[in-house]
Amino acid sequence: MDEQLLMKYVPKKYRDYVLDLYKDIDGYWLILKDGYKSTTTDTPTIHEFTIKELKSALPTIIKDV
User: What is the top-level taxon of the source organism (predicted)?
Assistant: First the structure.
């Protein structure tokens, strides 16, 4: 699926943090820009199996200090 089509599912307040968003056979992958990470994974990557789960994980994004 096209990244631009997937980005419509990411609320505007989180879009500036996103470097890439794509879907493969393992689910949805959101790659964060340098300087950001997910508190859940402690990495700049969020992986979920559905868009709904991915959207639920967005509030875990923080600035990496």
Answer: Bacteria
CB 14, CB 61: distance < 8 Å: yes
pLDDT reading at 38 higher than 70: yes
The arithmetic mean of pLDDT across residues 36-64, rounded, is: 96
- Strands (E) in 3-65, as ranges, are 18-24, 27-32, 36-38, 45-48, 61-63
> 58: which DSSP letter?
G
Contacts of residue 61, defined as CB under 8 A and 6 or more positions apart, other chains included, come to 14, 17, 32, 36, 37, 38, 39, 46
User: What is the rounded CA–CA span in Å between residue 17 and residue 44?
Assistant: 10
What distance in Å separates the CA atoms of residue 32 and residue 27, rounded to the nearest whole number? Answer: 16
